[in-house]
């Protein structure tokens, strides 16, 4: 195995995770797009 194999892969994972979280924060929450029914019993 190459030197620093796990460290390099962990760094790449952290970069991908940061990018994913950054994109996720810019998306509007889906729960706000659901209209409430007129009858709350439904």
Outline of this structure?
This protein is 52% helix and 0% strand. It has 42 residues and is mainly α. The longest helix is centred in the middle third of the chain and has 22 residues, at 5-26.
Number of strands: 0
Separation, N- and C-terminal Cα atoms: 59 Å
Estimate percent helicity: 40-55%
Strand content: under 5%
Biggest sheet record: none
Rg, alpha carbons? 20 Å
Overall mean pLDDT? 80
Based on secondary structure, the structural category is mainly alpha
Quaternary: single chain
Shape estimate: rod-shaped
- Helices and strands, in order, run as H
- What is the number of helical segments per DSSP (H or I, 4+ residues)? 1
Ranges where pLDDT stays below 50 over 5 or more residues in a row are none
Characterize the structure shown.
There is one protein chain. This protein has one helix spanning 5-26. It has 42 residues and is mainly alpha-helical. The longest helix is centred in the middle third of the chain and has 22 residues, at 5-26. The relative contact order is 0.08.
